[in-house]
Design a protein that fits this description.
The complex is a heterodimer of chains A (about 90) and B (about 400). Chain A is α+β, with helices and mostly antiparallel strands and about 90 residues long. Chain A contains two helices and four strands; from the N terminus they run βαββαβ. Chain A has one domain: Alpha-Beta Plaits (2-Layer Sandwich). With about 400 residues, chain B is of the alpha/beta class. Chain B has two domains: about 240 residues, Thiamin diphosphate (ThDP)-binding fold, Pyr/PP domains (Rossmann fold, 3-Layer(aba) Sandwich); about 140 residues, Rossmann fold (3-Layer(aba) Sandwich), CATH 3.40.50.920. In chain B, the strands form three sheets. Chain B has a seven-stranded mixed β-sheet, with helices on both faces. Classes of the chains: A alpha+beta (about 90), B alpha/beta (about 400).
């Protein structure tokens, strides 16, 4: 990665090419991952609502996938799911 | 017959500051009262209530909140002013750095007052010296007239340099001392300060930005270097704006330093703020006796005008530096330490004596000033400095 010179940075340390958070993949922070049981899922979307990283992918009102590039393994989705459709498991390499 | 066109008012330093603020008519003022600067915003809040200014006045619950409001409002692109002193400035400490590094112009009047403990309401410079490395411009004024004119110029300096600026005056000595102040017309002030052209605005939804994000070892270092560049630019902006002001309004307010009878001087005293008035008197007395002595008043402490000091003091034999704050470094006050550093590259440096004086409002009398001169004359005669610092006017 090529870094910029201090001379090329915007004054005031502001960020102009927002949202830069998209380029910041938080998935590699993870030590545990949510494991999904689609047969138990009622699609109430509580996991989607609570996920701090918008890592639950929903299409047409249904949970379809988890974006593991951003899921940092916090476990909130598992905690809020009333149907045991999610479980935290050790990350395997 | 000479036509008098200048308007002169009898004002205290606080009143002069409030009057300048009225004419500047800032968009937002957020402040919390503290002695000896309370009056500034007290008077200003009356202007707000009377509808003579358009300012959004935010009375907050602490100085930490006051400066935080200033930061937010300045980031929105507005013209911002506030006032504080002593513990209030100390409570603002962490946010001062944020204002400067986000490059947000804010003009703050400070009535210099000692820091606790013991609790004290009177003048010394420990408050603003405590924030000397926060990245703010610091301008120390000698009297109420200078406060008035410097404040108006400071708005343009801060907004051109995109840096916050403190304009200070000695607590009680100047904040509460009534003097003649030559004021401008409202329209003249408005025309001079013009319209702020912000570096960015958080309210500009067409150009969304993030301010104050996390910045680790990859770019924090570069951002600090970039901030320094802004301060280096301010060194050009300060004299340019002051020159423009002086020319436009036929004034003679100093930018970085004021020289008083320093031509051919062998002894020079470096001092800041109101003590310079007493020292000018002593310079006159000594000049009358044939002593080659002068005063160099340091007005801008940040950025430090080391190039100017190096040039102006290179041929001086003996230098006395007046410090109204203690550093507890055991090597004297902040001004003397920086003056020493500024002169270090010279091949032949003047003998330098630091004097600590006036802490907690201890009066700096003509006798004290004469004592300073006597010590400097002795140093000149003996060609040596034997004490790291001397406390002037202390009960031994």
């Amino acid at each position: 990665m090529k870094f910029k010179s201090w001379k090329d940075l915007p004054e005031g340390a502001i960020i102009t090419n927002v949202p830069t958070s998209l380029g910041f993949k938080t998935g590699d922070w993870r030590t545990k991952r949510p494991f999904y049981y689609p047969e138990k899922c009622k699609h109430d979307l509580l996991c989607w609502l609570y996920c701090p990283d918008s890592a639950v992918i929903v299409k047409a009102g249904k949970v379809v996938d988890f974006d593991m590039e951003y899921c940092k393994g916090c476990g909130i989705c598992v905690k809020v799911c009333p149907h045991d459709a999610l479980e935290m498991k050790e990350e395997e390499v | 017959m000479k036509t008098v066109t200048k308007k002169i008012l009898a004002l205290t330093g606080n009143e002069a500051a409030a009057y300048a603020m009225k004419q500047i008519n800032p968009d937002v003022v957020a402040a919390y009262p503290i002695t000896p600067a309370s009056e500034i915003v007290q008077i200003f809040s009356k202007y707000v209530s009377d509808g003579v200014v358009d300012t959004e006045f935010v009375p907050v619950e602490s100085e930490h909140s006051a400066i935080s409001v200033c930061v937010g409002a300045s980031a929105a692109g507005a013209r911002i002013m506030t006032a504080t002193a002593s513990q209030g400035l100390a409570l603002m400490h962490e946010i001062l750095y944020i204002a400067a590094s986000l490059r947000l112009p804010i003009v703050m009047v400070v009535g210099n007052r000692a820091l606790s403990a013991p609790i004290n309401i009177h003048c010394d410079h420990s408050d603003t010296m405590g924030s000397r490395d926060s990245g703010w411009i610091q301008m120390y004024c000698e009297n109420a007239d200078e406060v008035y004119h410097t404040l108006i110029a400071a708005v343009k300096i801060a907004e051109t340099a995109n840096l916050p600026c403190m304009v200070t005056m000695d607590g009680f000595i100047v904040t509460h001392g009534m003097e003649n102040v030559e004021v401008l017309e409202d329209g003249e002030v408005q025309e001079f300060v013009g319209k702020r052209n912000p570096l960015y605005s958080v309210l500009d939804i067409e150009n969304p930005i993030t301010i104050g994000p996390l910045d680790l070892y990859d770019y924090y270092f570069e951002h600090k270097r970039s901030q320094l560049e802004g301060v280096l630019n301010a060194k050009k902006i300060i004299p340019a704006v002051i020159d423009e002001y002086n020319k436009k309004f036929d004034k003679n307010i100093p930018s970085f330093v004021e020289e008083y009878r320093t031509e051919d001087a062998e002894i020079v005293i470096v001092a800041m703020s109101s003590a310079a008035g007493t020292l000018k008197e002593v310079v006159d007395i000594e000049r009358e006796k044939g002593e080659k002595i002068g005063l160099l008043r340091l007005k801008v402490f940040r950025p430090f005008p080391h190039e100017i000091l190096r040039e102006k003091l290179k041929n001086v034999k003996v230098l006395g530096v007046m410090d109204r704050a203690e550093t507890f470094s055991t090597m004297g006050g902040p001004v003397s330490i920086e003056v020493k550093a500024a002169l270090y590259p010279l091949e032949k440096r003047p003998l330098l004596q630091d004097f600590i004086f006036g802490l907690g409002g201890r009066e700096f009398t003509l006798e004290n000033a004469l004592e300073v001169v006597d010590i400097l004359k002795k140093i000149k005669k003996e060609e040596k400095v034997s004490e790291e610092f001397i406390y002037i006017g202390i009960k031994e």
